[in-house]
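[recover] target loaded
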C-alpha cells in the first residue's frame, strides 16, 4: 500500500473516544499492512483538551501543516464543536484539506465542521441521534439520517457518536485493504461485532420509551420473556388486564409505538442475536423468534435493517477467539 496520510482534526472540547477509537484502528492496520501515517492537527500545535479533561498533543497546528496531500481527513466531534465551527481559520483549513483529500470523514458532531466547510453539501450524512434536530434545522442543504451508525456517500463518510467511529474506521480500512484485514483488527481490539453502516444506532431497549404503568409493563415483559410467543392484541390485553382497545391506546401512548410494531422489533432483536451468536438455519430462527418463515424474516430485516439475514450473519458473526 502506498503511503496514505490519515489526518485527524481536533479542537478544544473534542470527544476523546472520537479520536482514540478510529486512530487505534488505523494504527492496527498500519502494523498489518504498513502504509498508513496518522497525524493530529489542532488549532495550534501542542496540548488540546478534550471535553472530558484528557489532554492530547496535536502534532501540528493549522498554521504549520499544508492542507494538500491528505488522503483521509477525519474530523472528530465533541461538545466544543459549536465553538470550533466559529473558528474561521480552522474551518478554512478543513475546507482546503477536504477539497483535495481522497476521503472526507467525520465522527459524531464533527459533521457540523464538515458542513461549515462546505464539504457535505447535498450529501447524505449521519451524526449522533441527539443532534438530529439541530443539524436538520441549521443545515437544510444536507440529507440527514441519524438512524445508521455510519453512512458512505461518494467520498464523504460520516458516523454516529463515540464507538461508532471505530465502525467507520474499520469500514475505511476494509475499503482500502479488504474484509480480512478489517476482521483481524476487530479481533485484536476485542470488538464483539464488526457492524455494517446500516446497523441502527439503537436496539429496542434504547429506542423505545419505558412503560410507566404496571399493566403496560406486564405486557412488555411478556414480549421480552418470549419473543416467539403469539403476542396478539388479545394475548397482550389479557396479560395486562385491559381490553384490547384500551391496551392499544395506552401502549402506544406510553411507548410511542403500537403493540404490533413493538413486538416485531423485539422479534427482530432476538433474531439478530441468534444470527450473530449461533449457527441455526435462518428458517429455524424465524420460527423460534415468532417471525414465521425465512421469507418473512428476510422481509422484516430488509424493512428495518436494509440487509438480508444471511448478510447480517456474515458481517455480525462474533469475532471472539
Amino acid at each position: 500500500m502506498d503511503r496514505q496520510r490519515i489526518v485527524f482534526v481536533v479542537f478544544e472540547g473534542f470527544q476523546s473516544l472520537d479520536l482514540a477509537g478510529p486512530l487505534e484502528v488505523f494504527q492496527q492496520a498500519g502494523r498489518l499492512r504498513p502504509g498508513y501515517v496518522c497525524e493530529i492537527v489542532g488549532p495550534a500545535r501542542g496540548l488540546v483538551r478534550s471535553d472530558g479533561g484528557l489532554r492530547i498533543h496535536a502534532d501540528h497546528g493549522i498554521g504549520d501543516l499544508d492542507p494538500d496531500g491528505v488522503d483521509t481527513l477525519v474530523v472528530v466531534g465533541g461538545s466544543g464543536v459549536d465553538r470550533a465551527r466559529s473558528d474561521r481559520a480552522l474551518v478554512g483549513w478543513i475546507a482546503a484539506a477536504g477539497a483535495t483529500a481522497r476521503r472526507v470523514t467525520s465522527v459524531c458532531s464533527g459533521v457540523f465542521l464538515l458542513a461549515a466547510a462546505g464539504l457535505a453539501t447535498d450529501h447524505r450524512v449521519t451524526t449522533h441521534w441527539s443532534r438530529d434536530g439541530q443539524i436538520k434545522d441549521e443545515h437544510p442543504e444536507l440529507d440527514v439520517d441519524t438512524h445508521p451508525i455510519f453512512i458512505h456517500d461518494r467520498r464523504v463518510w460520516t458516523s454516529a457518536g463515540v464507538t461508532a467511529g471505530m465502525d467507520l474506521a474499520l469500514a475505511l480500512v476494509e475499503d482500502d485493504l479488504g474484509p480480512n484485514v478489517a476482521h483481524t483488527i476487530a479481533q485484536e481490539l476485542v470488538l464483539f461485532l464488526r457492524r455494517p453502516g446500516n446497523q441502527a444506532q439503537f436496539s429496542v431497549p434504547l429506542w423505545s420509551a419505558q412503560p410507566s404503568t404496571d399493566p403496560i409493563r406486564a405486557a412488555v415483559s411478556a414480549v421480552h420473556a418470549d419473543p416467539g410467543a403469539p403476542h396478539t392484541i388479545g394475548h397482550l390485553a389479557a396479560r395486562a388486564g385491559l381490553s384490547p382497545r384500551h391496551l392499544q391506546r395506552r401502549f402506544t401512548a406510553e411507548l410511542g409505538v403500537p403493540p404490533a410494531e413493538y413486538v416485531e422489533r423485539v422479534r427482530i432483536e432476538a433474531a439478530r442475536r441468534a444470527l450473530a451468536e449461533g449457527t441455526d438455519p435462518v428458517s429455524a430462527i424465524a420460527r423460534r423468534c415468532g417471525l414465521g418463515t425465512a421469507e418473512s424474516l428476510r422481509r422484516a430485516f430488509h424493512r428495518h435493517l436494509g440487509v438480508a439475514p444471511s448478510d447480517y450473519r456474515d458481517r455480525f458473526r462474533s469475532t471472539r477467539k
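[recover] notes: The first strand starts at residue 4 and ends at 9.
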